[in-house]
Amino acid sequence: MALRSRSSRQPTGLTPERARDVGDHASPGQSAGASSSVGSTSVRRRGPTRGIILPQGEKLHVDWNEHGQPTSDRFTTLLGTTESVDIGEERKKWVLQSMASKYREWKNDLKEKYYKPFDTDAQRLARPPPDISDSDWTWLVQYWSSPETQEIAAKNSQNRNKQVIKHCGGTKSFARYREEEIRSRTDGSVPTRAELFARTHTKKDGSPSDPKSAEIMNRFRELASTQESDMRSEMESLRERERLREHEMQEMKKTMEQMQKYMHQIMPDPHNEDP
């Protein structure tokens, strides 16, 4: 199959809103529109991109933290963001950046499930993902198979292999992790950056995600221990200074009482003098 070079044309239907849950309902060997098995009772659902009915003119309420980051669970599509959700102008930059990141993740999922498992473009084109038109899928396959894109992908793969810190937080933002941590605390305290790092770089079995993350978390603990020790020393020093101050005040009080007593002894009482 002749492959065309990277084109400025973008797929007409290839948007994050169309197939957020692509791959959850079909395997790479399943063609578009085909059922997964005969007699299957599974039902395909729209998933997180389904529309939300609202009265005309009303918008969904989204919770935001003090950094302008959303902490609500439902926050998925451009249409829902711009038309159905109440968002201030100052927060749109974060929203658009987040959507761009999710769009890249969605395309990466497509490539992992429907492109990489096969050896030839003919096999890939014969097994397109659901909810993506044939023309869009053909464009994507040709784009990923082009020499220019292959070269970029190889460089990106090398850069990823150089990364020694692995994130375990999934697609959930740090803002949501922070909000969940605050809600789970009875004292209402705010988690530190070190605590958030530990939560997002720890596996389900409780072990660090990688040696470098373990080293960083150990360093955090050492710093916290040192700071705690320094704080205890400082508090003890403050208490000692307070004790000295209290002692000095008591000594001054005794001195004043002695001086007053002495003054009464050497000076006659004017009320007892003879007229």
What topology does this entry show?
Layout: H1 78-84, H2 92-114, H3 121-126, H4 134-145, H5 147-162, H6 174-184, H7 193-200, H8 211-266
Organism: Acorus calamus (Sweet flag)
Biased composition (Low complexity): 26-42
Region (Disordered): 1-75
Mean pLDDT: 74
Give me the strand/helix succession. Answer: HHHHHHHH
Distance between the termini: 133 Å
The shape, in one word, is elongated
Number of strands: 0
Q: Which ranges are low-confidence, i.e. pLDDT below 50, for 5 or more consecutive residues? A: 1-9, 12-40, 76-81
InterPro entries: Probable_transposase_24
Biased composition (Low complexity): 26-42
Region (Disordered): 1-75
Protein name: Transposase
Word description of this protein:
With 275 residues, this protein is mainly α. It has eight helices and no strands. The protein is elongated. The termini are far apart.
